[in-house]
Amino acid sequence: MHKTMEIDHGAVPYAGSAMIFFEEELLVKLNGNGNEWLLSGEVKVAAPDGLSSAIGHGLRMLMRDLETKLGVPPVMTTMDDNGTQLRIRYAAAEDECPMHEEAYGFRFHSREEGNRLDIIGRDELGLLYGILQFTEIYLGIHPFWFWMDQSIRQEEYVAIAMDNMDSKPSKVKFRGWFVNDEVCLIGWKEEYPPSREIWLHVFEALLRCKGNMVIPGTDLPKSGVHLAVAKEMGLWLTHHHAEPLGAEMFLRAYPGRNVSYLEQPELFEKLWAEAIEKQKEDKILWVLSFRGQGDKPFWENDPSFDTPEKRGAMIGKVIRIQYEMIKAEVREPVFCVALYGEIAELYQEGHVSLPEDVIKIWADNGYGKMVSRRHGNLNLRVPALPQGDEAGKHGIYYHATFHDLQASNHLTMFPGSAEFIKSEVEGAFRAGADQYLLLNCGNIRPHVYILDLIRALWDEGEVETGRHRSVFVRSYFDNGFDELAELFRLYGETAIAYGPHPDDLAGDEYYHHPARCIIGHWLQGRGDQTDSRLLWATGEGTFAEQVQSFESRCEEGLRNWNAWLNRVEAAVERLSAGDQGADDRRRVEDHLKFHGLLHRSGCEGFMWLCRAYSAYAEGRYPQAFVMASQSMWSYEEGLKALRDSEHGKWENFYRADWLTNIESTVRNVDTLRQFLRMHGDSPDFFLWYKEFLMPETEKHIYLENTHRNPLSDNELAFRLKEKFEAENDLSGTKESNDK
């Protein structure tokens, strides 16, 4: 993508912008000593023999990016070639490279043979980061170029001010992604588990964000390439809290056995020993933990542990055994304990004893707030950060996306504001939780804006959100910068607030799983009973009151999302014409409008579903049938948004929407309207047509052989909708209709 830019070589690099510094408008201004180098044509690149696979991947990206930007394939040459323009090497003493881990720098040389830049690194990741920083700063290849479909325009040359540069340490030592609930990555291609091609793009983006660790997927088959590719690219590997040490699940190894460490410790320890042996030569952040099968409390499998004291003592004992097993086999291991769910509560109550040198990982509640997560209807909101002067090392597990079958965001962006995330993450750092930041990144593509915000935080330690938005938009769009930045800001103010806390904001799952709960409860004939599964959202009350609560919130949400989408549409209209404008419009549709459409269609579909129940409860069955149809049509708009976003390389990206599962909601509502048609139109499915649609002149003289072809559900619903709308009879109740 061609853009004019001001490169401030005297400023401290900003994680969200590489070294690109924006004023009100972008102007070319190369600061420094005035020695400007125009890099063009066939670039010669040199690197010493015997470099690691990670640096090999870095060179692959460098060569690709040079050809993409300059239009000419670069060539690899030898380290003693005097014509070399880019030399990749580890730092030597005379370089005076910074001493911190993962340090890198740029060293320029002006010679008779031509200018040369040495990209130097203190270690493997430092050298890799240096290569990727070069391509971002000077070639304009931004971290999420693949995921944002960045337009990269070829140029005859790139201008480089020859000023040496050194990196500074990142705020967080261990920083990376948990590629979790990754159904889109799984279903995108035919191959399962996800192929090398997919993981290369995931890990490249992470490395460009200066990430250094990853959990590459959730419970993927061991035959997958995800672990191998992550290691190849130089990343530290860590483990899911439900898979301590990365060991095989007990019931997979020993199907049918009773899952009890108390009864058969040797079997558990055999699995841990095998995991240690397999990984002991790799870069591993060892996660010590003890949870039950399927990511639940272990005492659900072993009910003899019936007090907090017993449970905490067992967790502490198992963690100590795992700790000692690793220390016996691994040199200088790094240990972590995920204080997640019940383990956090037991630890805070003083029931779990941990070794002193483990990194204690505190987790947000899935909605960005550093408190304990909600379990069903139980929401204690216990602070989840080290308190006071608690000793030891601490870090956080944070969610850009979450899946809980309640109100979480899975397909859509985080529903809250960047300012809220800034406050929570910076607050965690101030509390001392700055050794480790694992970010649940989901399927990458829907969450790029928040992933970029977190990369600024984990690198710099703080962020000015308005500046970050401006840099982000200018990195990936060619026009409409201020307006698009404002849309990203307003998105964080538009979501339904379903509860009293600032993080009680509805993501896409809010419109679907609760809706399916309501349909199931209704069709099972339990309308006289409160649906206990929905108390977290509605509080106590009758089922009808629960339904009404969702309806009122969705009515408000629909107004808000319509207003936001109107602004998006206006912004799209104002984007410039031509190829650049077309590219920008596509990006706006994929990374802004897409999210609003899922929210709007969800609000509208859920609202009509709730209205259908009210009409049904009043015995207004034809109206309820039409309302259920309108609900289904609205939810189908969400499916259409998924399909419309699957263009080009993204074909089939959302076909494995198994978690929010919009298609399941559509099927559920279709079942509901078929049920409703039974109430008065059965058995011949002609009676509503006769009562409401047939001309009066025909009702008493028609012949059955010419009039008994039943209308389809859709056709009947469309025609009844027109009639009821004309009669102003399509609100949830007569009372609300009068209002």
Question: Could you characterize what this model shows?
Answer:
- With 739 residues, the chain is an alpha/beta fold.
- It is 42% helix and 11% strand.
- The protein contains 23 helices and 18 strands.
- An eight-stranded parallel beta barrel has the order 11-12-13-14-15-16-17-18, surrounded by four helices.
- Helix 1 (53-70) links the parallel strand 4 and strand 5.
- Helix 17 runs antiparallel to helix 18 (621-644).
List the keywords.
six-stranded mixed sheet; 23 helices; 18 strands; globular; 739 residues; alpha/beta; single chain
The amount of beta strand, in percent, is: 5-15%
The N- to C-terminal Cα distance equals: 53 Å
Mean pLDDT: 91
So how many helices? 23
Report Rg: 29 Å
What is shown here, in short?
The chain is α/β, with parallel strands linked by helices and 739 residues long.
Spell out the blueprint of helices and strands.
Elements lengths: L5 E2 L21 E2 L5 E5 L3 E3 L6 H18 L4 E3 L8 E5 L13 E6 L6 E6 L2 H14 L19 E5 L3 E2 L7 E5 L4 H5 L8 H13 L4 E3 L10 H7 L3 E3 L11 H4 L11 H15 L4 E5 L19 H20 L6 E6 L2 H7 L10 E5 L29 E7 L18 H13 L5 E5 L7 H13 L4 H12 L4 H11 L21 H11 L11 H4 L4 H32 L3 H40 L3 H24 L17 H16 L9 H7 L10 H4 L5 H14 L7 H5 L1
Parallel strand pairs: 1-2, 4-5, 4-6, 6-8, 11-12, 11-18, 12-13, 13-14, 14-15, 15-16, 16-17, 17-18
Antiparallel strand pairs: 3-9, 7-8, 7-10
Helix pairs in contact: 1-2, 10-11, 11-12, 12-13, 13-16, 14-19, 16-17, 17-18, 18-19, 18-22, 20-22
